Amino acid sequence: MSWGTELWDQFDSLDKHTQWGIDFLERYAKFVKERIEIEQNYAKQLRNLVKKYCPKRSTKDEEPRFTSCIAFFNILNELNDYAGQREVVAEEMAHRVYGELMRYAHDLKTERKMHLQEGRKAQQYLDMCWKQMDNSKKKFERECREAEKAQQSYERLDNDTNATKADVEKAKQQLNLRTHMADENKNEYAAQLQNFNGEQHKHFYVVIPQIYKQLQEMDERRTIKLSECYRGFADSERKVIPIISKCLEGMILAAKSVDERRDSQMVVDSFKSGFEPPGDFPFEDYSQHIYRTISDGTISASKQESGKVDAKTTVGKAKGKLWLFGKKPKPQSPPLTPTSLFTSSTPNGSQFLTFSIEPVHYCMNEIKTGKPRIPSFRSLKRGGPALEDFSHLPPEQRRKKLQQRIDELNRELQKESDQKEALNKMKDVYEKNPQMGDPGSLQPKLAETMNNIDRLRMEIHKNEAWLSEVESKTGGRGDRRHSSDINHLVTQGRESPEGSYTDDANQEVRGPPQQHGHHSEFDDEFEDDDPLPAIGHCKAIYPFDGHNEGTLAMKEGEVLYIIEEDKGDGWTRARRQNGEEGYVPTSYIDVTLEKNSKGAVTYI
Questions:
Q1: Do 396 and 272 form a contact (C-beta atoms < 8 A)?
Q2: Residue 503 and residue 507: Cα distance in Å, rounded?
Q3: Where would I find the H helices in 344-489?
Q4: Is residue 72 a contact partner of residue 134, using CB atoms and an 8 Å limit?
Q5: Bridge partners of 559?
Q6: 550: number of CA atoms within 13 Å, CB side?
Q7: In what order do the strands lie in the sheet with 581-585?
Q8: How high is the pLDDT of residue 356?
Q9: Domain boundaries, given as residue ranges, for the chain
Q10: Residues 6+ away with beta carbon under 8 Å from 458
């Protein structure tokens, strides 16, 4: 099946068909473009939705701690990744399908125009041959008629007896001339006819089939390209299905991670004050006055003294207890009046002191109407009074706050110690290689680092003293072990789920194993042992031996990953592909940072 043999006379139809094919290709390209815009808008709306509902972590106290909140934020992260995959689909379609279609449509238009021009030229040449043949035919026909007229004129003169001989000879010459011209035109017409027939055969059996074959191949390639684009359109979606499935699995795992028991325990840990519930009120018998004997005598001194002792004992018991909301009875009892203190006597005549019901009302009113001594956490978040030692908080909350501060100070101390070590290494390198830098220039930074270390150690010591005071007041869970070396961040004692440390195994609260130094699930986000992400790469300009501890040897031209930028000390932390890490001089390398390194987590 060939267009050249089957459609030899359908040039205009093929012209329209090929134009329709290009229009269809461009229409499909427009469809893909609109699909790309839908994917981009969808991804943008998803990212805006995630951004809208993501927490604004202004302070560490507002970080989500409940498993339901953490699960929701994990779902938001997975949804953000899902939006990223929709962007990948849009980019793949734009590059692999839409861009390819537009380029191919342009090439197709150019090729079609060239083939059609060739066909029109061939048709024009054939038309020119036909015109030449037709002109020679008409000329031959005209000369033949003139020759016939000359012959008739000659025969008429020849038969006319009145005609002179000169007229007959002239007519004869005219006949011979016309006959000769007719023969020449006949030969020319025959040649032109033969030439036209040859060109016509060549046109319809060679030239036109070749042009139509090229048009057919062009149209078939267009069809194949559409098929490839259809497949690429589907592959763009299919490639991201595994990652989208992982995002959905992450959402399911986040839903399974919700633990109502743990959330309830967090509520207890967040709001537990550490105070004991108020004790029982002492029984005061007011029925004794029923049996009191009518007597105007006064109470004896010994009876009165014993009554005073009983009263003090009663008030002392009330003072020794912890009251609700941290409110204790006032140290001095209200003044005793005749209505609040009276004497009673038993049937045998003995007298004793009793309290009326007014002191009970007084205590209850103090509990109900007295303002709590401890400000609420909401008022603290709004900028309420906050003391350095957290003495405004309940004991349990104060202990946790102090423990968190100590952990933060320990981390800062570790950073300063690492910086000190790096400065000492750099100083050693400068001393061995003076051309790299002046060792004296590092002395101010070393002095500042040492001051920071001393300040942090004093802060840790002060907070540990406050923590010991709180633990001693609340009974503690055992003596907290103080490490002589502040640089160690993990204590050797036992850690309860509430974050307190104890050496007594009998006092340890049984629960799920927790890592030392972690006091909430949320800290795991910041404390993991995964390798640092690569934020760029570098190329060694000069070789470096790296004999000192902590440095990384490199060869000239070697490419390394950057995992930590130069902090102003002249050293950059790098890593090889085999995982070996160390510091290299910043002046020895050509650093290239990734554009998305800020905030990105791209593990190499």
A1: yes
A2: 8
A3: 358-369, 377-381, 395-432, 443-473
A4: no
A5: 539
A6: 16
A7: 581-585, 571-575, 559-564, 536-540, 589-593
A8: 41
A9: 3-56+63-263, 395-473, 536-593
A10: none
**Phi first, then psi: what are they for 583, rounded to 5°?**
-100, 140
User: What's domain 395-473's architecture?
Assistant: Orthogonal Bundle (1.10)
Cα gap 463→454, rounded to integer Å: 14
Q: How confident is the model at residue 410 (pLDDT cuts 50, 70, 90)?
A: very high
pLDDT digits (tens, 9 = 90+) for 42-95: 999 999 999 999 877 655 555 567 899 889 999 999 999 999 999 999 999 999
- Ramachandran class of 579: left when φ > 0, alpha when ψ lies in -120 to 50, beta otherwise: left
Position 300: which residue type?
A: S
Determine whether 362 is exposed, middle or buried from the number of CB atoms within 10 Å of its CB (0-12, 13-18, 19+): middle
**593: confidence class by pLDDT, cuts 50, 70, 90:** confident
At position 541, the amino acid (one-letter code) is I
Contact between 115 and 218 under an 8 Å Cβ cutoff? The reply is yes
Q: Contact at 8 Å (CB) between 22 and 109?
A: yes
Q: Give the count of alpha carbons within 13 A of 479, CB side only.
A: 3
- For residue 584, the cross-strand partners are 572
What is this structure's pTM? 0.47
> b/e per residue, 310-327, with b = 16+ CB within 10 A?
ebeebbeebeeeebeeeb
Span 233-250, average pLDDT: 93
Parallel, antiparallel, or unpaired for β 536-540 and 589-593? antiparallel
Q: Structure tokens of 505?
A: 């195994």
CA dihedral 192, 197, 201, 202 (to 10 degrees): -10
**Token pair for residue 144?**
């033949």
3-state helix, strand, coil in the chain (%, to 5): 60, 5, 30
**Regarding the domain delimited by 536-593, which CATH topology (the fold level of the hierarchy) does it fall under?**
SH3 type barrels. (2.30.30)
Read out DSSP for 294-316? ---PPPPHHHHHHHHHHHHHHHH
What is the rounded end-to-end Cα distance, in angstroms, of the chain?
Answer: 57
The model's pLDDT over 7-53, given as tens digits with 9 standing for 90+, comes to 878 888 888 999 999 999 999 999 999 999 999 999 999 999 999 99
Contact 151, 141 (CB under 8 A): no
Same fold, 395-473 and 536-593: no
Show the tokens assigned to 309: 């002792």
Q: Residue 292's pLDDT is what?
A: 55
**CATH tag, 3-56+63-263:** 1.20.1270.60
- Residue 297 CB partners (closer than 8 Å, separation 6+): none
226's CB contacts (< 8 A; 6+ apart) are: 24, 25, 28
Tell me what the mean pLDDT of segment 161-184 comes to.
85
Instruction: Confirm if 212 and 14 have CB atoms less than 8 A apart.
Output: yes
Closest CA to 394 of 371, 370, 369, 376: 376
Amino acid 71: pLDDT: 92
Nearest CA to 232 out of 36, 433, 451, 481 is that of: 36
pLDDT of residue 298: 45
DSSP-H helix ranges across 320-387: 358-369, 377-381
Based on its alpha-carbon atoms, the radius of gyration of the chain, rounded to whole angstroms, reads: 53
Single-letter amino acid, residue 120: R
